[in-house]
Amino acid sequence: MNKVYSYLDDFFSLFFPALCPACQKNLFKNELVICTDCIYHLPYTNFHLEKDNRVARQLWGRIPFSVAGSFLYFHKGSRVQNLLHQFKYNNKPEIGVKLGEMYGHILHHAAAYQDVDLIIPVPLHASKLKVRGYNQSQHFAKGLSNAMGIPLFSGVLNQRLSTTTQTKKSRFSRYENMKDIFEVADPQAIAGKHVLLVDDVITTGATIEACSIKILEIPDTRISIATIAFTD
């Protein structure tokens, strides 16, 4: 029976090959989700090596945080943009899990992330969740959790109001659009904890700021930030 499944797998791989979401080239049989060439050539930030990095500088003076970083640089027309588009809009949650596991293996050995207690993804409003089918930040968080051995708390932070698109808004408009739309559903779960707040892309930081403000209202909490990409 195993041989039959193996033959069928080879047949479908021949006529319907899996494609790398970053470059759209065929994946080899031993490649999972992202091809080896793209993994090698992705623009890694290495922000985990310096506490004073560009994500951290963007958030200075806005929220108190322990450490902040992003895995990849985002440029228009790049492999990273292709990855994120496939992940966010083409029903490819496995991309987020893969990127989370890749980044998680790095952060697991980074000194600044050693005392993180739990991981919380930036939530998605129910109306957007219904359309998209899943919260992309949660799948990235799942990958981080798998690799770092840190529990994922996905129901602690909620988005109680829907928002208009952020894409063409200024930094101030983005903040005003996000202010007071999040709430902590279970304060006891995070009281006294070091929370790793996770999102897909950081641009102005308005979403991260709004979520962090609510989390930091809970006594003795600390915040660190991790995102897939940073808009360069």
Structure commentary:
α5 runs parallel beside α7 and α8 (171-178) packs parallel to α10. The protein has helices at 2-15, 36-41, 54-59, 79-89, 93-107, 126-132, 136-148, 171-178, 187-190, 206-215, and strands at residues 68-74, 118-121, 157-159, 182-184, 194-202, 222-231. The strands form 2 sheets. It has a 4-stranded parallel beta sheet with strand order 1-6-5-2, with helices on both faces. It is 41% helix and 16% strand. The protein is an alpha/beta fold and 232 residues long. The chain has 2 domains: 1-39, no CATH class; 42-231, 3-Layer(aba) Sandwich (Rossmann fold). The radius of gyration is 18 Å and the shape is globular.
List keywords for this structure.
single chain; 232 residues; alpha/beta; Rossmann fold; two-stranded antiparallel sheet; 16% strand
CATH fold-type name of the largest domain = Rossmann fold
Structural class: alpha/beta
Low confidence ranges:
none
CATH class of the largest domain: Alpha Beta
- Give the termini distance in whole angstroms: 51 Å
Compute the number of strand runs.
6
Global Rg = 18 Å
Biggest sheet, in brief?
4 strands, parallel
Strand order of the largest sheet: 1-6-5-2
Average pLDDT metric: 89
Structural domain count: 2
Q: Helix content range of the residues, please? A: 40-55%
Estimate what percentage of residues fall within beta strands.
Answer: 15-25%
Q: How many helical stretches?
A: 10
